[in-house]
Amino acid sequence: MKKLVVLLPSLQKYEIVGNADIEISAIEFDTRKIQRDDSLAAVPLYVAQRGTQTDGHKYIPQAIAAGAGAVVCEELPAEVNPAVTYIVVPDSSIALGRLASAFYDYPSRQLKLVGITGTNGKTTTVTLLHRLLSDLGCHVGMLSTIVNKVGDKVVPATHTTPDAVELNSLLRQMVDDGCEYCFMEVSSHSICQHRIEGLHFTGGIFSNITHDHLDFHKTFANYIKAKKAFFDNLPDTAFALTNIDDKNGKVMVQETHAAVHTYSLMAHADFKGRIIDNAFEGLQMSINNKEAYFKLCGRFNAYNLLAIYGTAVLLGFEPMEVLAKMSALNPAAGRFQLLRNDRKCTAVIDYAHTPDALKNVLMTIRDITKPEVEVITVVGCGGDRDALKRPVMAEIACTYSHKVILTSDNPRTEDPNKILEDMQKGIPADFKRNVLVIENRREAIKTACMMLADGGVLLVAGKGHENYQEINHVKHHFDDIEVVKEFL
Length: 488
Fold this sequence. Notes:
By secondary structure, the protein is α/β, with parallel strands linked by helices.
């Protein structure tokens, strides 16, 4: 609990109507979560946010009825309750992040918080940084798409980046548990929605940026602007580590106050890598003229490894010790995860759900295998998401595979057959005879396993670590890995 008057300095600009000398028991932006304990003098504070679906200002009466004794809003309601304190701010979402940070005693300032943003590679980088520093003897927290971790405690993840209140609550738990570091994925949505507002970052990493989330950002320029805003707001005490092989890598750090460092496979950089050998079993590569073997494979993972190495060195760890520990790291779940059978067939299960990610995985497979080795790809696209990438995904699958099966992913509230119709528009005319459309994902994977010749490679793309299919707001158990094991 905190006095409201103690929280208010976290806001840069505000007007107050009512009594600031009240005790706040919790901060909520969802009226359904507001609970008031009448035995306590403290009251919940409700933050009325303007969202894409609804306006929280409409629910101020419900929040007060549920027990909120203070309200943060961008404009006062028509009827002001004299028993309630109102804080009027320019932007409620910004205020929510700052108030949440203050409410939990600024936990991000009490550990070394490193965020990674980019289209692809976030989960792998965060997961392996968490493992690496744990292996180096540190107590580490993690916030990722797959899972959140507070020390050794696993906390299921619901979004790429939690809301501002949950985020600060998790960081507070990490500090209380003795964590020294936290690595977190920073999505473009979370940047635009100010979920990371009020956090203090020790460092930021840029992986890459490609076509994605245009359903939310509308234009690619807006998407780039959202990612760049993360680096623009880093403090001058932080580091910014950027991939300069991506054409937007330098753009990201143009206005940052942080100390800029670079990594690359193709140009001179602070952390320079060179691939020596690339196989299903792993990568042999040189990093800053030091050779090492890693259990991850593919050019895209070479970039992830450079980001991991660079981050660890910038955090002060000894380079040779970092390389030694990195050599023992296993891939993140559902990221180029391999399964093999006694017919020498290889199945690759990967989360690739963007055009660039799918291309990277398929190019890695084709680089590793001989030209005569058959590659079959099973792929779909999610519903209620960027529809422009659907034909592009299909075209990429056809370009780098011998046979393709288009299937359902997470249709959410969309008709899966409509999604498949969109994907089919990208099939090259001379490749149509090599494409099957099987809406049922289980049947699609089963069919691909039956079609696969001895020594062939099957890529099942799009869901990776996910163990469900979301259909009309209901999550049904479905695990690509389980299905492949059953039929391969």
